């Protein structure tokens, strides 16, 4: 377990959010990918922000109340996101999780986004590693 790295549990198939994108597009991406937040990147895939479900909820409430139309991600995103290295040990990351900490971590290599690690991925890996937790059986077509 100690040798497991962020790169071993990261998702690298999720398309990041780009500057200028409307918030409705962000909401669709969050819901489609079942994540609580996504990194915002520039044209070189450098992480410049982070947008969460909570950010979207607040911005959409405000914009609908004031009839302002669809906000863009630049107006809503958090501009100082916490990023991690692909080499970071999953155990170290798990020990740093806590109240008020991010639920999704952008993984950055040489200044570019290469994936994300979610709390769910960390939990699943800890369970798989034999921490005495049996993973639930998922229903199959044969059940």
List the helices and strands and how they pair.
Layout: H1 6-9, E1 17-18, H2 23-33, E2 37-41, E3 47-52, H3 53-65, H4 73-76, H5 90-96, E4 104-109, E5 112-118, H6 119-128
Parallel strand pairs: 1-2
Antiparallel strand pairs: 2-3, 4-5
Protein name: CBS domain-containing protein
Keywords: CBS domain
InterPro entries: CBS_bac (IPR044729), CBS_dom (IPR000644), CBS_dom_sf (IPR046342), Diverse_CBS-Domain (IPR051257)
Q: What's the order of the H and E elements?
A: HEHEEHHHEEH
Overall pLDDT confidence: 86
CATH topology: CBS-domain
Q: How much helicity do the residues have? A: 25-40%
Structural class: alpha+beta
Report the biggest beta sheet as strand number plus sense, adding barrel if it closes: 3 strands, mixed
Tally of domains: 1
CATH architectural type = Roll
Rg of Cα set: 17 Å
Please work out how many helical segments DSSP would assign.
Answer: 6
Number of strands: 5
CATH superfamily: CBS-domain
Low-confidence stretches: 138-143
**Gap between N and C termini:** 32 Å
User: Strand order, biggest sheet?
Assistant: 1-2-3
Overall 3D geometry?
globular
CATH class: Alpha Beta
Which strand-content bin applies to the residues? 15-25%
Brief account:
The chain is 34% helix and 18% strand. It has 143 residues and is α+β, with helices and mostly antiparallel strands.
């Amino acid at each position: 377990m100690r040798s497991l790295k962020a790169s071993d549990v990261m998702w690298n198939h999720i398309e990041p959010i780009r500057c200028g994108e409307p918030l409705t597009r962000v909401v669709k991406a969050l819901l489609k990918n079942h994540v609580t937040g996504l990194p915002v990147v520039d044209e070189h895939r450098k992480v410049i922000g982070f947008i969460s479900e909570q950010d979207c909820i607040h911005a959409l409430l405000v914009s609908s109340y004031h009839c302002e139309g669809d906000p863009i991600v630049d107006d809503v995103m958090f501009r100082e996101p916490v990023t991690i290295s692909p080499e970071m040990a999953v155990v170290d990351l798990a020990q740093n999780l806590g109240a008020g900490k991010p639920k999704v971590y952008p993984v950055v290599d040489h200044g570019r986004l290469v994936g994300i690690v979610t709390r769910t991925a960390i939990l699943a890996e800890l369970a798989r590693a034999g921490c005495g937790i049996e993973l639930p059986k998922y229903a199959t077509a044969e059940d």
